[in-house]
Write a structure and sequence with these properties.
The protein is of the alpha+beta class and 108 residues long. It has two helices and five strands, in the order βββββαα.
């Protein structure tokens, strides 16, 4: 999946989630790859079976506008999320950014 991340005067940057690298397309040129618009699979907690505009959080169906992302959660909320999804966070992992990176890898 490739998503647009930033536009500059020189061109547009895209993130290639599969290759884990930035792709750059100069201004005035079209991308040579398929760009994913509004990628729901990048939002944590998405249950694609629940419908295109619904997400499951803590067992409840909510509108996608109400979906939280990891960066807005506290460390204790992240740990609760992990426990609810049977993900074991290593004991030595204390920093929020480290926990977010770990959870992101585990939920891909």
């Amino acid at each position: 999946m490739i998503v647009e991340t930033r536009k500059t005067a020189a061109g547009t940057e895209y993130w290639d989630n599969k290759e884990k690298k930035v792709l750059f397309v100069p201004a005035g040129m079209d991308p040579y790859f398929e760009v994913t618009e509004n990628p729901k699979s990048m939002i944590m907690g998405v249950d694609l079976a629940s419908g295109p505009d619904k997400t499951v959080i803590d067992g409840e169906l909510v509108d996608d506008e109400d979906v939280m992302n990891f960066s807005k959660m506290t460390v204790s909320q992240l740990k609760k999320f992990a426990a609810e999804h049977n993900i074991d966070i290593p004991d030595d992992m204390k920093k929020k950014d480290d926990i977010i990176s770990f959870l992101t890898e585990e939920t891909e």
